[in-house]
Amino acid sequence: MSNLPMVKAEQVHKSFGSLEVLRGIDLEVASGEVMCLIGPSGSGKSTFLRLINHLEMLDAGRVWVDGELVGYRQEGDKLYQRKENEICAQRSEIGMVFQRFNLFPHLSVLDNVTIGPIRVKGANKSEAKERARALLDRVGLSAKVDAYPSQLSGGQQQRVAIARALAMDPKLMLFDEPTSALDPELVGEVLEVMQVLAEEGMTMIVVTHEMGFARQAADQVVFMDEGRVLEAGAPDAVLGNPSNERLRSFLSKVL
Amino acid sequence: MGAEEAGISASSRPTLIKAVPPRHPWRWVGVGALIVAVAMLLNTLLFSHTQQPHQSGSRFGWSIVSQYLFTSTVLHGIVLTIELTVVAMAVGVVLGVLLAVMRLSKSPIISSVAWVYVWFFRGTPVFIQILFWFNIQALYPHLTLGIPFGPSFVTLDMNSILTPFVAGAIALSLNEGAYMAEIVRAGIISVDEGQAEAAHSLGMSRSKALRLVVLPQAMRLIIPPTGNETISMLKTTSLVSAIAVVELTKAVEEIAAQNYQTIPLLIVASLWYLAMTTVLSIGQYYLERHYAKGATRALPETPFQKIRSQLFRFRPTPAALELARQDP
Predict the structure, then answer these.
(1) Among candidate residues A29, A31, A26, the one with its CA nearest the CA of residue A1
(2) Is A95's Cβ below 8 Å from some Cβ in B?
(3) Contact A109/A145 with Cβ under 8 angstroms?
(4) Does the CB of A104 have a partner CB in chain B at under 8 Å?
(5) What does DSSP assign to residue B212?
(6) Which residues of chain A have pLDDT under 50?
(7) Residue B174 to residues A157, B53, B121, B179, B241, Cα–Cα distance (Å)
(8) pLDDT tens, position by position, B213-260
(9) How far is B289 from B227, CA to CA, in rounded Å?
(10) Does residue B302 have a pLDDT over 90?
(11) Is B289 an interface residue toward A (CB < 8 Å)?
């Protein structure tokens, strides 16, 4: 069972109109592994991440999460689009953290974290609140439980967003450039939370430009460019001694 | 020396600027003209006497106004006006949300049905729609319930169901639905797409995301124009006076038809419409405030809170400020 990859992508293709964003992606993320996706903007990293929880539909190929085909059901060699409630069930087990936080501005911090468990999983209200307080404590925001998102700094908002995703007990966490919209001095507090999460054994796919984080936390670093995977491997191998010319020029610009 | 005098020296506090503000002579001319105009208005409203032969009293007939302000015909009219407004707005809002969601549907058929609805009901005068529903028994004398193109179970006489009040309520509701649809749609579109995506990523269905995340945020944009619509509806109900529904306007018309005091009775109606729209405006203010939660860092003070905080705020007098400046 533990040999089964948490995420498996096979020949994934995706186009927006005439623009080919992904041109055959093959990737595997083992359970408990942290994978960092790096690459220039427009290389398809975010699109690939969004395919994993079916926020985008793929054009060709297959994506499995925990052995289950995402968005489709296969019977024989025929594919059926999954119904909305099945897709929702799949998504509820995958946490996602967005570049622009996307907290719900009309809800307090606590309600942001409890809305998923209560309204999607049907959790008991007082238990969900207790759990949310514990999670907010973990990301260092127990004092901000009653605040509204607009009263928080970007770093605080992103930590709430992480707590909101964790409240669903996901088996996989997707991070879409979680620190790109933050002021430089606020990046550290978010990365710290992610680092702890990685050490605790959460399976994570992180689209990032933070090479320090990739080096420190990742088990696997994947370099994408123009919709293809150009390099994949251990952080030291990919970041330390790149053989690929494009990766080398990318790293020289980022570092 | 020079710096010392201007108060820039390191130890002392900066000298506060005392400058002569610019003068606005034309503003004073305008104020004067306005005072004269308001005085003329008050004079004609309150002190000028009637020009009608064989009558005395003020030109506007204030004694007649006060005489009819609370008569039962007028009060009954007000009740009908309120009923029509409440029904039309309630149905209109529900219909509007439904049509807005239909407009945003991925199915082109559902979306175009909503479009055609809005096109039709917004494109014809509401007065004609009222007359249309009032006269519908000429088109369909009977209302029949049954299977389409099949047997019928119940047949009702259209005249007995569609009383003038019902006809008016239906016409106003369906018309309002078209306008509300556009208001709700604008509100939904204004909410950032990332909000729905975040809701979906938690496993919410489209309808849950709409109900729990998108619509509550859209409310902030939906409420001000809806308040506007409600106030507008309150007055539009006067059109059903044409189909013999004795709401406020028809009520004063009927009284005026007997005593020929048209102007005083129109004033009676106006005063009541003003009173009702004032109440609605206050309600709208508090509703807007409720839905501003999270959108602004601090909620604005209500008028009462403003008065209270003004009364009890500590305001340093110039003398106290001077004292504080001298004290190092």
Answers:
(1) A31
(2) yes
(3) yes
(4) yes
(5) I
(6) 1
(7) 43, 48, 7, 9, 18
(8) 999 999 989 999 999 999 999 999 999 999 989 999 999 999 999 999
(9) 13
(10) no
(11) no
Q: Which domains are delineated in chain B?
A: 70-301 (1.10.3720.10)
**3-class secondary structure, A12:** strand
Asked if A94 lies within 8 A of B295 by C-beta distance, the reply is no
Please report the pLDDT score of residue B197 as a whole number.
Answer: 96
CA distance B76 to B71: 9
The answer to whether the Cβ–Cβ distance between A150 and B194 falls below 8 Å is no
- What is the rounded distance in angstroms from the CA atom of residue B201 to the CA atom of residue A174? 10
Cβ–Cβ contact A51 with B under 8 A? no
**Residue to test with chain B: of A119, A150, A173, most B Cβ within 10 A:** A119
Q: Is residue A122 less than 8 Å (CB to CB) from chain B?
A: no
CB-CB neighbors (< 8 A) of B203 in chain A: 88-89, 91-93, 116, 120-121, 168
| Helix (H) or strand (E) run with residue B77 in it | helix B72-103
A98 token code pair: 């967005």
B-chain residues near A120 (CB < 8 A): 202-204, 208
Order of strands across the sheet with A204-207? A94-97, A172-176, A204-207, A34-38, A220-225, A228-233
Residue A170 CB contacts under 8 Å (≥ 6 apart), including other chains: A93, A94, A95
Question: Are A91 and B200 in contact (CB < 8 Å)?
Answer: yes
DSSP state of B44: I
CB within 8 A of A240, min separation 6: which ones?
A: none
Q: From chain A, pick out residues whose CB is under 8 angstroms from the CB of B194.
A: 98, 100, 102
Label the pairing between strands B152-157 and B142-146.
antiparallel
Contact in structure between B173 and B88 (CB atoms under 8 Å):
yes
How far is it, in rounded angstroms, from Cα B68 to Cα B269?
10
Mean pLDDT of B283-300: 77
Instruction: Compute, in degrees rounded to 10, the torsion defined by CA atoms A149, A150, A156, A158.
Output: 70
**Closest CB to A96 among B201, B293, B297:** B201
Instruction: Tell me the residue length of chain B.
Output: 328
Residues of A in contact with B204 (CB under 8 A): 88, 116, 119-120
In terms of CA atoms, which chain B residue is nearest residue A96?
Answer: B201
Distance separating alpha carbons of residues A157 and A163, to the nearest angstrom: 10
